[in-house]
Amino acid sequence: MPDPKSRPASDRSLELDPSVQSLTEAMERRWSEASLPRRQREKLARERAKIQARKPQRATYDLPPVLRQRLKQLSDSLRVPASQLAALALLRFFQDLDSGALDLGKFKTPSRSPRYDWNLELPELYQFSERSRKTRARDS
Description:
With 140 residues, the chain is mainly alpha-helical. The protein folds into three domains: 15-56; 63-101; 103-140. Helix content is 63%, strand content 4%. It has helices at 9-13, 18-34, 38-54, 65-78, 82-99, 123-139; strands at 108-110, 118-120. The protein has a two-stranded antiparallel sheet. The longest helix is centred in the middle third of the chain and has 18 residues, at 82-99. The protein starts with 8 loop residues before the first helix and ends with a helix. The mean pLDDT is 82.
């Protein structure tokens, strides 16, 4: 059996456990940052603190490309952050849901996932939004 130390370092690093590799990379990052001038280290610390402070405000959801594109187009045209448009849309959604103006039961279909009982079938909504946008453009 060949001696593992006789192989190039690049081959040996491929065999590292992911947690060990992550720890090693973190240590290397700390060492390289320690060699930076004080002002740059302070700037990195401020940036990290900003990122940590924003974490409770962040959320990740899988959205269909059509919705992401529409949100981006609208935010670009209005010159406002897309996250604020998404927040406004969610607020309106919850208002409609709470007032009974929106019935999610119309969109529920059984799920095969052990985690969820239902999925929401959305293609009809996309078609409606496309029709309503074309209708508004035609009526204008």
